[in-house]
Amino acid sequence: MKVVLIGYGNVGKEIEKVLLENNISVELIVKSSGIYSKHSKIDTNDNFANYLDAESELLISVPSRGDGSEMLDYYLKPLEIGACIVTCEKAVLAHHWGLVQKFRGQIRYSATVGGNSGILPAVSNYQGKIEEIKAVINGTLNYMSDAFANKRKESDIFRDVMTFGFTDPGSNSLQDVFQNELRDISYKTAILANHSNLYDKITPNDLSIEPYRDNTRCAVILNKQRITAGFLAFEDTSWFPTGVNNCLYVNGVKVAEGPGAGGRITAERMFKDLQELQD
Ligand SMILES: NC(=O)c1ccc[n+]([C@@H]2O[C@H](COP(=O)([O-])OP(=O)(O)OC[C@H]3O[C@@H](n4cnc5c(N)ncnc54)[C@H](OP(=O)(O)O)[C@@H]3O)[C@@H](O)[C@H]2O)c1
């Protein structure tokens, strides 16, 4: 097994630690500045496919951006030569679901929705026909909408979100946070919708994500008729998880709940995916 990390930020560094704890060493690290072996640069990153073969296992944690085209090559070439991929990056999967359909045996992505809360595995393992999925899939927006419901001041909410690292460190205002996190919701909703097999093929462009309004909570509801996502009005909010947790209800019954984000927990979920690929 030849382990290659693509992306070496919050999640990538934690993946390396989790692998080392399990006596697995990383052969190569691909950053935007080049390919590194034992932390020395050996090549430019556009040559990365030359270092791969069918025994390679790639762990991808590059930024989720735009329609995924910027990072698509990190998936296409490796999958075509028979390598395996574990990813937590969302834009490529959300916009190019055909990759998952074509290379199902070589790709795992359970960290893309719900961090380590096991939302996607719970959908796969559900016994029976899925009529409705109701989920909280963005911990930051869950935290924020709960704080708004409790009439906390905007400046305090923004301070918390930044101090606790719940969102992109580049955000300058709550509006930035909303914008980034609503894009995240559109990626995750598309992945969850496609993973559930309730629809033919959905991309974020097919979705309309409801912006924040007073007295709403951030959730996703999927049934055969429609997909509703973003800030929605609920009479009963008692089913929402606390803090930055995520949760999943199938046909009205809770089947998963847990932490939705964080470098370490994301890395741990990716390690579970890697083990599943090797079984
Ligand atoms: N953090 C979480 O809790 C969490 C949870 C679930 C999913 N995710 C997803 O995981 C991914 C990574 O998140 P993160 O928190 O680790 O972000 P991050 O800290 O910003 O790390 C991303 C890394 O990717 C590198 N990178 C950027 N462009 C690249 C390119 N073209 N080729 C190779 N490397 C490139 C960046 O560094 P250089 O430019 O220096 O190489 C950076 O170190 C995102 O897609 C995010 O949506 C994150």
Outline the secondary-structure elements.
Elements lengths: L1 E5 L3 H12 L6 E4 L2 E4 L2 E4 L12 E5 L12 H8 L3 E4 L3 H5 L1 H6 L4 E2 L10 H6 L7 E5 L2 H11 L4 H10 L10 H23 L12 E2 L6 E7 L3 E6 L12 E6 L2 E7 L3 H16 L1
Parallel strand pairs: 1-2, 1-5, 5-6, 6-7, 9-11
Antiparallel strand pairs: 2-3, 3-4, 8-10, 8-12, 10-11, 12-13
NADP nicotinamide-adenine-dinucleotide phosphate binds next to helix 1, strand 2 and helix 9.
Describe, in plain words, how this protein is organized in 3D.
With 279 residues, the protein is an alpha/beta fold. 35% of the residues lie in helices and 22% in strands. The two termini are 13 Å apart. It contains 9 helices and 13 strands. The longest helix is centred in the middle third of the chain and has 23 residues, at 174-196. The chain has helices spanning 10-21, 73-80, 91-95, 97-102, 119-124, 139-149, 154-163, 174-196, 263-278, and strands spanning 2-6, 28-31, 34-37, 40-43, 56-60, 84-87, 107-108, 132-136, 209-210, 217-223, 227-232, 245-250, 253-259. The chain folds into 2 domains: 2-115 and 264-278, Rossmann fold; 120-259, 2-Layer Sandwich (Dihydrodipicolinate Reductase, domain 2), CATH 3.30.360.10. Strands 4-3-2-1-5-6-7 form a 7-stranded mixed beta sheet, sandwiched between helices. The model has no long low-confidence stretch (mean pLDDT 94). A hairpin with a 2-residue loop joins strand 12 and strand 13 (253-259). Helix 1 (10-21) packs across helix 9 (263-278). Bound molecules: NADP nicotinamide-adenine-dinucleotide phosphate. NADP nicotinamide-adenine-dinucleotide phosphate is lined by residues 6-12, 30-33, 45, 61-64, 88-90, 111, 115, 261-263, 266.
